[in-house]
Give the backbone structure.
Amino acid sequence: MGWFIRKASSSSALFFLFSLVFLACSMGSAEAINITEYPIPTPNSLPFSIATGPDGAIWFIEYNANQLGRIDPTTDVITEYPIPTPNSGVAWITTGPDEKLWFTELDANKIGWIDPTTHVITEHPIPTPNSDPWSITRGPDGALWFNECGPNNIARIDPTTHAIKEYPADGVCSGMTSGPDGALWFIASHGAQHPQIGRFDLTTHVVTEYLVPTPNSNPGNITNGPDGALWFTEFNANQIGRIDPTTHVVTEYAIPTPNSGPAWITTGPDENLWFTEAYGNKIGKILLVNCAAPGAPTKVTATAGNAKVTVSFKIPTSNVGCPINSYTVTSSPGGRTATGAGSPITVTGLTNGTPYTFTVKATNAVGTGPPSKKSNQVTPSSITVITPQGGETWQRGKRYTISWNFTGKPGTTVMIELVEGTSSSVIKTSTSIGANWKGSYSWTIPKKHATGSDYKVRITSKTKPSFTATSNGTFTIN
């Protein structure tokens, strides 16, 4: 079950409870939605950042209202706490190592924290003027880390002494989180065309960045997920992204509500991922399913074409409910591959006349499964019309030779047709394909045959009609 917020009108806002379940590892059908509504005390509060508190509640920022919000996931009661500094631009919230909720004040140039027991709010000024503090996260070193958009820094604040130290880190002006690898992970802002996820090593202070597949996706916030991966929002792309901290593979998941504006994301006390939708005015939850690499696809069947083979297959039976992102088909011999989202997949660039078999592997967010059993053996083949090829003038009542070449195994017999524009007529219903890769047929043009200058000859295999060829150009019959 998940939460979302919706603005009902200009004078009221509603907090909804509903079963929005994103099966990040399941292709299952959507579950029924059971909606219950709860009013948010402050209208138009604009909930943004969200975090799990040490008290087991969900805490969130009310940017427009200059408040912190708290919802008890058991009672559904919402409580609000005003920020002491007016118009502070409260932007981001996280739980600190001292069991307090820490937050940034973008416009007030402060770092603040609230005691979840006493609800007392304390604010601490940042020494650097106009630092524009944005995101904040608990670091693996027991400190709080935040970014300073103004001077382009990553900053560290000691939760006991409140001492602040700054480190240059160009492009760090969005979401940031502590990763499972002991580093800080953040959204790197280097232009909308090439969004990236960054990693800041706390020991070497080296920044490494990884490209997000969807251009212009505008990632906003990132969090350490319960599955050992980093999860982030893609505001413009209406997606939730996931990056593996070891392989650095990025997977993206679409949000059902169009143009929802996913902004912030966090891991909840229920070990699921919670996120806000700024335009949808909702809070959603991603339910993670325990996932394994997929099994092998079955019933792999190959169909030959001209320098290509189309491979069809069935999805793995041992998929453990996890979504398969792609399938890869591999040829033998040659090892040529083709990738697709499902069956069938066509492998191109093959050699006509060479017998091939194929295997298929499935890939999901966890990894790539074992290969399937080999397909049936097929041989890419072709037929090529040699005469007429275009430009010839044939006379009615005379005999001419229609010839063709072939490769591979396109069948034993062919049909010969005369094509004029979009219409065709049969010259010979069936004749031998030939021998030694060549074939021919002697055709006497009827004396009363219609004249014209838009004729072509088409040769089609009788047993394998996918193998067909037509004259390159038109010829004339007088």
About this structure: Residues 1-37 have pLDDT under 50 and may be disordered. Residues 2-286 form a domain with the Methylamine Dehydrogenase; Chain H fold (CATH 2.130.10.10). The radius of gyration is 33 Å.
